[in-house]
Amino acid sequence: MRKYFCTLVAGIVALLIGCTDNGSGAVDRGDHVWKAQTDALDKAKQVEQVLHNAARKRHERMEQSQ
Predict the structure, then answer these.
(1) Residue 23 gets which letter from DSSP?
(2) How many Cα neighbours within 13 Å face the side chain of 9?
(3) Where are the domains of the chain?
């Protein structure tokens, strides 16, 4: 049992050391592993807003024409 516990602790320590900030400042610049995905999501949100505004204007025009 002690052998498994030591292995578990060693694994957790290794993960923590591997995930620590190395001081490169990459996070401060906005560079990260999922940058491409987050950029795509931001663009999709912008397109969604444009489509929402267009639909709202179209609805307003339809209401005015009636």
Answers:
(1) S
(2) 6
(3) 35-66
Q: Say if pTM beats, i.e. exceeds, 0.70.
A: no
Phi and psi torsions of 51, nearest 5°: -65, -40
Lookup: tokens for 60: 């307003």
How confident is the model over 45-66, as pLDDT tens digits?
Answer: 999 999 999 999 999 999 998 8
Q: For tokens 């490169």, what's the residue?
A: 24
Q: What are phi and psi of 23, to 5 degrees?
A: 80, 10
Q: pLDDT by residue (tens digit) across 4-24?
A: 888 888 888 888 877 766 665
Work out the angle at residue 58's Cα, subtended by the Cα atoms of residues 54 and 61, and round it to the nearest 5 degrees: 140
